[in-house]
């Protein structure tokens, strides 16, 4: 019920991207995003707080065992999660913002498509969630899920190690007919069913879609559930310019965000390509939203 209370108190503005901000600040391809210096990470958190974010997300999206193993850091799961949650906490001191600890997908597939079992997924997510939950944070956000099995296992694992509020979001694409599906073929209805069964505190979608492409998805979610809703769109489609990924300014940003809110989103933030400037715009719209 805590998330509902926060929303009633007006805490509705999440933060923007971490990954694309870290790239702007010098993170190179092939480097582990969770290993950037404390100074760089604080810069990102601080920029979002200054822009008006009421929640900041820890730099722990890929800090699970299989993802860290790709950087030969699989023995450092506890250390990295503890450090990065601590950096967010330290930046937030005295600023009145909530700390959301971030859990992303493993990048692995569950059987029969891959080698992982539900039990293995549960172990991986509990290992990460346990450390994060012990780090004086306010909530857990599970993001960018595309597989229904991994979604279920991650929520199950998190809830088995902590009673902190849990937000879960999946990432959807929109096809030519306007239907929303995750990369693994999951519909919003299937996703919402699992999230309700698992009793998350809020649900929604993040990444992949631009703000304008997300509006109908918000409407679909609103029809499917009474749970609080959170949406974090990307800053449009990325383009490659001189070997660099560039997100161009979003046309009609204010209009699209207003429509996302009107369609029923309770909390809004941003995913890949969004920056403090985007949060500034978002905060302004949320502040002037007197519809609730
Ligand atoms: Zn993203």
Task: Summarize the structure in words.
The chain has 292 residues and is of the alpha/beta class. It is 42% helix and 15% strand. The strands form three sheets. Strands 1-2-3-4-7-8-11 form a seven-stranded parallel sheet, with helices on both faces. It has a two-stranded antiparallel ribbon with strand order 5-6. Helix 9 packs parallel to helix 10. The longest helix has 16 residues. The radius of gyration is 18 Å and the shape is globular. The chain starts with a helix and ends in a 5-residue tail after the last helix. The structure holds zinc ion. The site of zinc ion has 4 residues, from loops.
Radius of gyration: 18 Å
According to CATH, what is the topology?
TIM Barrel
Q: What strand order characterises the main sheet?
A: 1-2-3-4-7-8-11
The level 1 CATH classification is Alpha Beta
| SSE sequence, one letter per element | HHHEHHEHEHEEEHEHEEEHEH
Number of helices: 11
Hetero compounds: zinc ion
**Percent of residues in beta strands:** 15-25%
Main beta-sheet strand count, sense and barrel state:
7 strands, parallel
| Overall pLDDT metric | 95
The low-confidence parts are none
* Total number of distinct structural domains: 1
Strands, count: 11
CATH-defined superfamily: Homocysteine-binding-like domain
Question: Ends: how far apart?
Answer: 18 Å
The assembly state of the depicted protein chains is single chain
Shape: globular
Question: Which structural class is indicated by helix and strand composition?
Answer: alpha/beta
Specify the helix fraction band.
40-55%
- CATH architecture descriptor name: Alpha-Beta Barrel
